[in-house]
Amino acid sequence: MIAKIVAERLKSQDEVALSKGISSKSISTEGISKETVSSEGIFEDMDTAIEAAYQAQRTLFEKSLEFRKKITNAIKAELMLHVEELAMLAVKESGMGNVKDKIIKNTVAIEKTPSVEDLMSGVFTGDDGLTLLEYSPFGVIGAIAPSTNPSETVICNSIGMIAAGNAVVFCPHPGSYKTSNLAIKYINKAIKSVGGPANLVVTMLKPSMAAVETMMHHPLINMLCATGGPSVVKAVLESGKKAIGAGAGNPPVLVDETADIEKAARDIINGCSFDNNLPCIAEKEAIVVDEICDYLIFNMKQNGAYELTDKVLIQKLETLVFKSEGVLNREFVGKDAKYILDKIDISVGDEIKAIIMEADKDHPFVVEELMMPILPIVRVKDASEGIDLACKLEHGLRHTAMCHSKNIDVLTEMAHRIQTTIFVKNGPSYAGIGVGGEGFTTFTIAGPTGEGLTSAKSFTRRRRCVLVGGFNIK
Ligand code: NAD
Q1: Which residues line ligand 1 (CB under 6 A)?
Q2: What's in the keyword line of the UniProt record (predicted)?
Q3: How far is the CA of 98 from the centre of ligand 1 (A)?
Q4: What is the Cα–Cα distance from 306 to 243, expressed in whole angstroms?
Q5: What's the 149 CA to ligand 1 centre distance in angstroms?
Q6: In the chain, what are the domains?
Q7: Rounded mean pLDDT of 203-211?
Q8: Per-residue model confidence (pLDDT) at position 471
Q9: What are phi and psi of 41, to 5 degrees?
Q10: Structure letter (DSSP) for residue 303
């Protein structure tokens, strides 16, 4: 399914038209209705929501692993019915991203988030007997979700956290909470359909910072998991509770002279325009060896890039997308290239997916995480200088980086030195979360706290059970 969608994306130059085609289906984009309150995990008050999740977790705790698998299978089956609806609501509500790519993101969250199979027990046997290493739930987890992946994060976290035996209290972003809440409503419907406990996944009817504060310090919350920018990661780390922090990135992509330049150009433009550059993993700046830079730019333009060369226009774009130094104008986050170009009086067709320009290594487009399909290109003399610069521009966030090269030494050195959680070789950034690349997916990439690509196991406590002097059959 995902392979099919990716193949479509790679050959498509008409994604905007495609995404418009989807809108022919009549769906409700009003989010949740009043009657879903409390019956489908949605509460008016945070204390009541947490209490309900606590009770649900007690019930789940007594059930088998097979039953958890049944629940996560039901969630996957139910949510597959709603990917278009969730994608469309997210774009409408947040004003960011595009429907076609949000369908891919929701689909991959459903199909490739691991369930209980992630909880592989460990064992030690020897002269002194047998020791089991097993994964137990934390209890109730407080999860904070971003506006950039409002349903994907809810789907992915819910599957992993429930598979691990937990209940979840979500605090979605105020700018996209209806989408998150709609996903939560469908998740509870799915859980109910297989006889699972009500309110295993809960949230608030309307988000507020007061509710987030209550959740972060509530005694029944055993773990926090924040997916978002630096501020929310800092907040959970200061809470005093066990916290997973999945924060911002500024992923560089390096291209050297040995790379397949045509493919590199296509992959980079596809990656940096995916959901209009909202994903934290998306290419945010290209670092290119001088020798092949002109040819790469030529090929980027063959694949939907519009190049700005006029310094006045580049300055105009900078003034547009930054409110002040280092402060983004949120109006342009997640907007498409055509919309952004139109604001600087450049009219282009729907085939334009990204805006590129050559830039100095200290330019704000290079240094800041824009989350817009604007890709600055910095020339370097060779791969060695490129790796140095990539490490600097990643800011030590340990998030994501890409490299296009056929030189194994360059690929190895960059992967080793940059120490990102995800490192993609010769592919678009989204291959790193399982879209056209091997491996499971996650929408919570915890660089700062080190869990990396979170999965069910990340939401457990590792426990040991020791039997002395028995069950050793060597
Ligand atoms: P954001 O930081 O504005 O909001 C994220 C969530 O945190 C929201 O629910 C928000 O209400 C809450 N929040 C913000 N400040 C808070 C505070 N001080 N205390 C408590 N809660 C707070 O992020 P966004 O704009 O929705 O998402 C984009 C950011 O998230 C980007 O920086 C992106 O790189 C990052 N992100 C990271 C990952 C990852 O897995 N590492 C995934 C998605 C997004």
Answers
A1: 144-149, 171-174, 212, 227-229, 231-232, 235, 246-249, 280, 369, 443-445
A2: NAD, Oxidoreductase
A3: 19
A4: 42
A5: 10
A6: 25-247+451-465 (3.40.605.10), 252-438 (3.40.309.10)
A7: 95
A8: 81
A9: 85, 5
A10: T
Nearest Cα to 146, choosing from 330, 41, 280, 282?
A: 280
Torsions phi, psi for 298 (to 5 deg): -55, -45
**Chain position carrying tokens 């989350």:** 371
pTM > 0.90? yes
* Token reading at 45: 């008050």
Give the integer Cα–Cα distance in Å for 179 and 92: 9
Contact present, 269 and 420 (Cβ < 8 Å): no
Confidence of residue 8 (pLDDT cuts 50, 70, 90): low
Q: Say how many Å lie between the CA of residue 212 and the centre of ligand 1.
A: 13
Amino acid at 126: G
Q: Determine the average pLDDT of the residues in 427-455.
A: 97
Centre of ligand 1 to C-alpha 146, Å, is 5
Going from the Cα of 6 to the center of ligand 1, the distance in angstroms, rounded, reads: 27
Task: Output the CA–CA distances (angstroms, integers) from residue 363 to 34, 219, 390, 402, in the order listed.
Answer: 48, 46, 14, 20
The DSSP string of 222-267 is -EEEEESSHHHHHHHHTSSSEEEEE-----EEEE-TTS-HHHHHHH
Residue 26 has pLDDT above 90, yes or no: no
- What average pLDDT does range 419-428 have in this prediction? 98
With both helix axes pointing from N to C terminus, report the angle between 2-11 and 261-273 in degrees, rounded to the nearest 10.
Answer: 110
Estimate the crossing angle of helix 150-163 against helix 99-112, to 10 degrees.
0
Ligand 1 mutation target, pool 212, 250, 327, 394, most atoms within 8 A of CB: 212
Q: Which of 102, 144, 420, 455 to mutate to test ligand 1, by most ligand atoms within 8 A of the CB atom?
A: 144
